What we know:
Bound molecules: tetrahydrodeoxyuridine
Strand order of the largest sheet: 2-1-3-4-5
Distance between the termini: 48 Å
CATH topology: Cytidine Deaminase, domain 2
Number of helices: 4
Strand content: 15-25%
Radius of gyration: 15 Å
CATH class: Alpha Beta
Shape: globular
Amino acid sequence: MSSELARLFEAxxxxxxxxxxxxxxxxxxxxxxxxxxxxxAGCNVENAAYPVGTCxxxxxxxxxxxxxxxxxxxxxxxxxxxxxxxxxxxxRQRIREFASxxxxxxxxxxxxxxxxxxxxxxxxxxxxxxxxxxxx
Length: 136
Ligand code: THU
């Protein structure tokens, strides 16, 4: 694992340890590297009103935006097996807002990286900010 990826892995693992998931008992952490090479992490935060809960990726993205970051260069999601914890559909779109199709999305468990995808693979032919630039 490259040192940059190891940084993301450790940040996601630390955030995951603090996840608030009393309803699903499925704790997830995420970490991303922005265009300033800063790392931002988040965890899932569930709610007694179930649909109000937020995913780990949403937390990491909010932390990036709040500190001035505007581009995701690489992102990692860490959660328990046996299935791969790939970002949910809504989070793929959240990532898309700040990432190009070639950005890598790494999926990890506690032992390390299990798979890596490009965002374009996870969300092909996507709709993004460029679509809103049009002639009236
Ligand atoms: N979850 C995430 O935080 N990220 C993902 O990529 C998949 C799912 C959370 C949402 C919910 O709190 C729990 O995992 C179970 O779905």
